[in-house]
Design brief:
heterodimer; A: mainly alpha; 2 domains; 0% strand; flat; B: 502 residues; mainly alpha
Chain lengths: 151, 502
């Protein structure tokens, strides 16, 4: 199933890329324009994505061994939480600022991945957020996002 | 400057205090990331690339290269003691190394692995000196058609040799080339796939992309696998010395592994992993007692450990002499060169002798430091594994996020990191190796530039690629690599029924 979904996604992305590439000036063979190479890459990508899709829908070789052993209970939940924490970090950091978001990020992951108590997770969150903000913000001079409240 | 004079000059550069410190930090970080499952050398190099901005180019490259070959040492430690390879190039070592540990010979396995790595690293330095100078001189004759043919052949080889099928290799190459076209086009400044975004007009940064595909994706896989606690075999210092018989059994495998590793490193692809498998198979095939392999044969540790270090040295040759990386790790080294304003390529040796010879000599110094570090401190390094995995995963993710942002203080890099982290996790589920994607992102712009120059030179006539012997030879090599195995299989199938009928 995952191979088929991936094949459809690859095909759609390849078609969208190639359609975008056709809108750029192509130039001539002697003087290729900015669209020349992307169109060639798009054609190649579409052909390969089609072959991949054909293979996936025939149940062919490309992703053999992909399924592996079935995941243990809670495994998908841990992946989901980690992925959501990463996306949440990107969404929140411009608004809430780095220290707050780093604290939330570390607390959530330690609590969920380590299955620890709240006290440990909160302490780890505070320590990691403070230490990383000090090292990157103060020592290395990285202008970390401060959020709308402090800006 | 002759190679010998160059190497002498390089030792002067490598032994300068700042460079020596960078080398020490690099090999130390490399050892630790080699030990830890969760972040490999590529992710660690990408993570530390921003910290090299304030360094000189030579110092930066010495540190990053130290992480690369240092990780090969660290990986063997956990393979032998815990049966958990810290990175892919140490998987083979675990087969016999762990069996030796179970028989109480962990110390001997670690010592032979470290000495084998040192010997291979030293042989590799000699190989770089000989091959890189020769190849750089040859590359001075390269024009755009040859460079275009080289990039095409390199990507074809990579697709064939990376894990998975050729089709998935091609898919990764296609995606990588497509990503490489995002941003302002270099000749006309025409914006491509930028959707009006100013940060996107600079293109997609390589470092967050690599951090995502290797660092974040690996953590997502670890999160799925759950918490594992390693039980670690204790090793006393007095147990570190192999017996006379063990030394005798290891000598030739180390020599063969060094040569196999270096030569494999010259080829595009997952050289370090491939080299260990080739070396292991070779040792088993030529052994008078192949049945010992898998039960704790020291040759099964000595050969592959020498091979993976030899391969890291071999992989530096195309980077330093042609300016073309054929692996994700050397792609980061290329990125470091470019960030520091150095033009990689055949002129590097004459234009920046301190960078070229300094890095080459530092590899010898680094291998010596690794030998000193790894044997007496093996217990300390392995204790890193006692850190709970969820703490380590969380810290690595936070470092990836801050590291990606600090590259250019751009939120786009954060999104690139996360998007490619999720994509990398998906690739893992599909058993697809993302290495060709990364190399294609780096080679794509070179390929486009040289293709346009070739067509411009030939007034649009593609046949120029066939008229020039070197570009024709390279393209034929690529075609042979792609089509050769198919033809071979078809011939064998045709012969098989004929033989059975007879």
């Amino acid at each position: 199933m995952i191979e088929r979904l991936a094949a459809v996604a690859f095909l759609a992305a390849s078609a969208a890329y190639t359609a975008g590439a056709w809108t750029f000036p192509l130039g001539t063979a002697a003087r290729p324009g900015p669209g020349f190479f992307p169109v060639a890459v798009g054609g190649f990508l579409c052909a390969v994505a089609l072959l991949f899709a054909a293979s996936a829908f025939r149940g062919g070789a490309p992703a053999e061994g992909a399924a592996g052993a079935p995941p243990e209970p809670g495994a998908r939940g841990r992946v989901r939480v980690t992925a959501l924490a990463l996306i949440g970090f990107c969404l929140l950091v411009p608004w809430a600022g780095y220290p707050v978001v780093a604290f939330l990020f570390v607390t959530a992951l330690i609590k969920r991945l380590g299955d620890t108590g709240w006290a440990v997770a909160l302490l780890a969150g505070i320590a990691c957020a403070a230490a990383s903000a000090y090292v990157f913000g103060s020592l290395l001079g990285v202008p970390l996002p401060r959020g709308v409240l402090l800006d | 400057m002759s190679p010998l004079e160059g190497l002498g000059f390089g030792f002067g550069v490598a032994l300068a205090p700042a460079n020596l410190l960078a080398c020490f930090v690099g090999v130390l970080v490399g050892t630790i990331v080699g030990i830890l499952p969760g972040i490999g050398p590529v992710g660690a190099m990408a993570l530390l690339l921003p910290s090299t901005y304030a360094m000189s180019p030579t110092t930066a490259l010495i540190m990053l290269a130290g992480i690369y070959y240092g990780s090969m040492y660290g990986g063997s430690t956990t393979s032998i003691l815990v049966n958990v390879p810290g990175e892919a190039a140490s998987v083979v070592t675990a087969i016999d190394g762990y069996q030796m540990a179970r028989k109480g010979r962990a110390g001997a396995a670690l010592c032979v692995a470290a000495v084998g790595s040192f010997v291979a690293g030293s042989v590799g330095v000699v190989g770089i000196v000989l091959f890189a100078s020769w190849l750089a001189e040859l590359a001075l004759q390269f024009g755009p058609p040859e460079y275009f043919a080289l990039t095409v052949t390199g990507l074809a080889l990579l697709s064939r040799l990376s894990g998975g099928s050729v089709l998935t290799g091609f898919l990764m190459v296609g995606i990588g080339l497509a990503i490489g076209t995002v941003g302002m086009e270099s000749v006309s400044g025409f914006p491509r796939f930028t959707f009006g975004s100013v940060p996107l007009s600079q293109g997609i940064e390589l470092v967050p992309l690599i951090m995502g595909l290797y660092g974040v994706a690996e953590i997502l896989v670890l999160a799925e696998e759950g918490i594992r606690r390693a039980s670690i075999a204790p090793v006393a210092l007095r147990d570190l010395f192999p017996t006379r018989l063990e030394w005798r059994q290891s000598g030739w495998p180390i020599a063969r592994g060094s040569a196999v590793g270096f030569l494999t490193g010259l080829i595009p692809g997952p050289a370090t992993v491939l080299a260990t498998f080739i070396s292991y198979m070779l040792e088993r095939r030529i052994s008078r007692t192949p049945e010992r392999f898998g039960t704790g044969a020291i040759e099964g540790v000595a050969g592959p450990e020498a091979a993976n270090n030899g391969a890291t040295a071999g992989a530096m040759v195309p980077l330093l002499s042609l300016g073309i990386p054929f692996s994700p790790a050397t792609a980061i080294l290329l990125g470091a060169l470019v960030i520091h304003g150095i033009q990689p390529g055949p002129m590097l040796i004459s234009a920046q002798p301190d960078v070229f010879w300094g890095v080459v000599a530092s590899m010898y110094v680094g291998n010596f430091l690794l030998l000193l570090l790894n044997l007496p401190l093996v217990g300390v390094f392995v204790s890193v594994l006692r850190l709970p995995q969820y703490v380590l995963s969380t810290l690595v993710l936070l470092l990836c996020l801050v590291g990606a942002y600090s590259l250019s203080n751009s939120l786009l890099d954060l999104w690139v990191l996360v998007a490619f982290g999720l994509a990398g996790y998906g690739f893992r589920k599909l058993s697809i190796d993302p290495a060709p994607l990364i190399v294609a992102v780096v080679l794509g712009p070179i390929m486009e530039k040289t293709l346009r120059q070739t067509l411009f030179m030939a007034h649009g006539d593609w046949r120029l690629l066939a008229y020039r012997p070197l570009s024709l030879a390279l393209l034929l090599l690529g075609a042979a690599v792609l089509v050769g195995p198919l033809v071979w299989t078809a011939l064998r199938r045709r012969r098989a029924p004929a033989a059975s009928a007879a």
